[in-house]
């Protein structure tokens, strides 16, 4: 029974291979199961396993930037940023102040400009009967220069207006220029000023205005826009000397006070008869209303800069107005003067006709200046001819010397030296 259970559960089979193995020792290595060999592990893993677990680094102030640094370290940077911010803020405020000044002027004067001219501004569209914002009629050329333009008026070809304001956006330059103006006469004190120039037709409408069908007949019926040429001005006495030095046309006039005008103004004219005809009560009232803001009102047919050639003496009739802008935005006192300035070409066409004796005196002054220019031009030409002649003589002498040998050159130079010596002795004898 026990044998049966051993055979059924394999108990007897375990002894048979053992007996066979012992019987055949040559196959002992193959009969036995291979003994397990441990696989070596990497050294790093062994070291890591042997070492204790790493701990977290300690928390220190170097992990918080506000604990490592303080605002005192950035003091210089803060000062630079503060100064830059102030400069930027002053620049913005100054630029806006200049723009506001220019806009306030155009708002005050736009109605009279639109009533006197068919086109105002640089838009190229008629503005007389249209509703246009005054701010669009002026153009910003720079942060301190603004300009506007007008055309389309009888007797006036076009009008240029320029506003030159102080450099409020750069207080350093502004203070520097102001100090120079106070301590030196070369640099004028900077002010906010207006300069307007009206260019009259002077009978040259056909050369300026585009021709249209039937316009020739209409222009033939219209009175001519010509008037006699002269130089006449009402000038502030504070600027009289500077204006005479800067403008050639005013150097042709003489100065005389007039009882119709305030004591701070004077008249610069080429003839007393011209002053009597042009100094009207309306002009005197406008000058009084403007006060000492007026710098000058000039009627001229001569160039501003002294002419250097005969061509530059060609008459060009223009009217100039310059006045300082008020500190505020009220232009009521200056508006009568500006209106009179715009309508002055009409008055000149009607009244600026003088006796032949007056015009002869004016022409004599112009002819005297022209003769001086001719003389200066002729002297310059003579100097050029003498220089060319001397240059040719020297070239001929150098060529003659180059063609001679050393002995002949020495003889030539000695002869030339003796000739110069005799000439100098002759001059000294004549002086004695």
UniProtKB/TrEMBL annotation:
InterPro entries: CCDC47. Residues 377-391, 407-423 have a biased composition (Basic and acidic residues). GO terms for biological process: endoplasmic reticulum calcium ion homeostasis. GO terms for cellular component: endoplasmic reticulum; membrane. GO terms for molecular function: calcium ion binding. It is a single-pass membrane protein. Its main location: membrane. It is found in: Membrane. Residues 377-432 are annotated as: Disordered. This is DUF1682-domain-containing protein. Keywords: Membrane, Transmembrane, Transmembrane helix.
């Amino acid at each position: 029974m026990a044998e049966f259970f051993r055979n059924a559960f394999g108990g007897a089979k375990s002894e048979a291979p053992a007996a066979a193995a012992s019987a055949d020792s040559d196959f002992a290595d193959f009969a036995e199961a291979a003994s397990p060999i441990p696989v070596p592990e990497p050294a790093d893993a062994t070291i890591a396993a042997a070492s204790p677990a790493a701990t977290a680094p300690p928390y220190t102030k170097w992990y918080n930037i506000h604990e490592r640094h303080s605002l005192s370290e950035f003091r210089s940077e803060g000062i630079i940023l503060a100064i830059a911010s102030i400069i930027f803020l002053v620049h913005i405020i100054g630029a806006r102040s200049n723009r506001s000044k220019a806009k306030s002027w155009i708002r005050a004067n736009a109605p009279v400009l639109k009533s006197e001219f068919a086109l105002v501004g640089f838009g190229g569209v008629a503005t007389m009967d249209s509703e246009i914002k005054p701010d669009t009629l002026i153009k910003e050329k720079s942060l301190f220069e603004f300009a506007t333009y007008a055309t389309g008026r009888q007797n006036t070809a076009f009008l240029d207006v320029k506003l030159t304001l102080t450099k409020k956006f750069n207080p350093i330059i502004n203070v520097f220029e102001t100090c120079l103006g106070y301590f030196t006469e070369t640099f004028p004190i900077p002010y906010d000023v207006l300069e307007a120039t009206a260019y009259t037709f002077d009978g040259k409408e056909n050369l300026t205005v585009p021709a249209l069908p039937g316009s020739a007949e209409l222009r033939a019926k219209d009175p001519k826009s010509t008037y006699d040429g002269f130089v006449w001005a009402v000038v502030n006495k504070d600027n009289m000397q500077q204006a005479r030095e800067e403008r050639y046309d005013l150097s042709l006039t003489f100065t005389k006070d007039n009882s119709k005008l305030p004591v701070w103004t004077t008249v610069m004219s080429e003839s007393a008869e011209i002053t009597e005809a042009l100094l009207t009560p309306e002009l005197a009232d406008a000058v009084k209303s403007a006060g000492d803001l007026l710098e000058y009102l000039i009627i001229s047919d001569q160039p501003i800069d002294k002419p250097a050639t005969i061509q530059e003496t060609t008459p060009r009739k223009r009217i100039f107005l310059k006045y300082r802008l008020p500190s505020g935005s009220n232009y009521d006192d200056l508006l009568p003067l500006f209106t009179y300035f715009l309508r002055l070409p009409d008055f000149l066409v009607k009244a600026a006709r003088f006796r032949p004796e007056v015009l002869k005196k004016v022409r004599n002054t112009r002819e005297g200046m022209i003769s001086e220019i001719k003389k200066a031009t002729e002297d310059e030409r003579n100097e050029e001819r003498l220089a060319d002649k001397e240059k040719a003589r020297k070239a001929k002498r150098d060529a003659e010397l180059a063609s001679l040998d050393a002995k002949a050159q020495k003889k030539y130079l000695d002869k030339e030296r003796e000739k110069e010596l005799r000439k100098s002795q002759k001059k000294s004898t004549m002086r004695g």
